[in-house]
Write a structure and sequence with these properties.
about 425 residues, alpha+beta, Alpha-Beta Plaits, Rossmann fold, 2 domains, five-stranded antiparallel β-sheet, 15 strands, about 30% helix
């Protein structure tokens, strides 16, 4: 491994000298042929201990780094459009970006973040090696060729999160209600095996109930974020995470899920001061309903043709964090559904930034905030390239969606921890 890195470094140095100090620019506007793999190139450069630039709001949030033949070959291999420009031209671009009249900024990326995905490795679907649902984050990480490791309850409880910079929460139900799939799937083999698997983990770790296990997991994740980590969640892992925190010490699970009734005073016992993003929500008291609370904007009166959300346009120089998280080649993103499809604005704390919203429907789709020294982003919906992705549907082929703006938002979060931190000024 050491010899390989030294050989690559030699190639980088020789290539740079040969091209007389030039720069590779990866445009991220409509000229790019594969936006998703472009993030993988940026990550690969950082992983080879070479700094890069993220040019916020310049041609869709372009990337730039010192030219080498190795980097150029990698762009060609992965099908990513790039331009080789003289350093004088790149310096002119940086000077233009620094103009205070222009809403752009140049963010230096310094270190490839170590990525973990919280997901079970258990085989829920008989006869195959996949779960009965896929996960947009693992799909796009694999497609973009960004390495990641998996963790689950044992690793989280064993304090393994300290080894990572970035954590994604797979589509989990942290309330211990097994996704509220009981009415539709309680006789399905995968559902029975999922319940047995979760109960076995709980028992192995000394818990009487799965809900108690998951509560301690969310608390460990909270420690990870508070200590400076970055947590990203989608779909049911967003609202169920906060519901579990608010219900600390309160039984909110009906007998279908933990063998005894829900606490009749559960709603009044919720503590919203413990949550990351949501407050004043109402629990769904009908235990067989496929819904956790009033956080999710349900029922929705938005047709598929009208289901779009708009990304806010932040000041790149004054608010670099939300600017990084909303980089895209379009400000309008096609909506997509999930168990948690959208967030009701009235339940979002004032300290949380709304990054993307469907204004006519008064719903937020993409939000961000900080806790302690760290950050979190919640992204509603299941699959940005599949409007209504159901259990047992085949996984999305991202080679058919290389310019997906919805998937770009996920990858913005991946690169965010690599940025040299600037204090937010507003």
């Amino acid at each position: 491994m050491l010899l390989r890195k030294l050989s690559l470094l030699l190639v980088l140095l020789c290539g740079t000298v040969a091209l007389n100090a030039s720069t590779i620019l990866i445009p991220m506007d409509d000229k790019q042929t594969d936006h998703l793999k472009a993030y993988g190139i940026a990550y690969w450069v950082l992983d080879n201990q070479i700094d890069a630039w993220w040019l916020l709001n310049y041609r869709g949030g372009s990337f730039a780094f010192t030219h080498s033949r190795a980097f150029e070959r990698e762009c060609l291999t992965r099908g990513v459009k790039y331009e080789v420009i003289p350093d004088a031209k790149f310096n002119a671009i940086l000077e233009d970006i620094s103009n205070p009249e222009k809403n752009m900024d140049a963010m230096r990326l310094e270190k490839a973040p170590k990525v973990a995905v919280y997901t079970p490795e258990f085989n829920f679907r008989e006869g195959t090696k996949v779960q009965p649902w896929d996960d947009a984050v693992t799909l796009v990480l694999t497609y973009a060729e960004i390495p990641y490791e998996t963790v689950y309850d044992d690793e989280v409880l064993g304090d393994k999160l300290a080894e990572y910079d970035w954590l994604h929460l797979h589509h989990e139900d942290f309330t211990g209600q097994f996704g509220r799939f009981y009415r539709s799937f309680h006789t399905a083999p995968w559902y029975r095996r999922q319940v047995a698997y979760q109960e076995e983990i709980a028992e192995r770790n000394g818990y009487e109930k799965v809900s108690q296990l998951k509560l301690d997991v969310v608390k460990k994740v909270r420690e990870f974020v508070g200590g400076g980590g970055f947590m990203f969640a989608m779909c049911s892992a967003t609202d169920s995470y906060d519901i579990a925190l608010a219900a600390d010490g309160v039984d909110i699970c009906a007998q279908y899920y933990d063998g005894d009734p829900i606490d009749p005073q559960a709603q009044s016992k919720l503590d919203f001061s413990k949550t990351f993003a949501f407050e004043n929500f109402k629990l769904q008291r009908k235990p067989l309903e496929y819904e956790f609370s009033s956080i999710d904007h349900n029922p929705r009166r938005v047709s598929q043709k009208q289901d779009y959300f708009t990304l806010f346009d932040f000041s790149a120089k004054w608010d670099p964090v939300p600017t990084m998280l909303t980089q895209n080649h379009t400000r309008t993103v096609k909506g997509f559904m999930g168990q948690t499809t959208a967030f009701r604005k009235e339940h979002i704390k004032s300290s949380v930034l709304i990054l993307g919203e469907n204004k006519p429907a008064q719903e937020a789709r993409y939000i961000h905030g900080n806790y302690g020294e760290g950050f979190f982003s919640f992204y509603a919906g299941h699959d940005p390239a599949d409007y209504r992705h159901l259990v047992n549907d085949p996984e999305t082929d991202l080679s058919l969606h290389p310019m997906s703006p919805g998937y770009r938002l996920i990858l913005n979060n991946i690169l965010f921890p690599a940025a040299k931190k600037k204090k937010r000024k507003t």
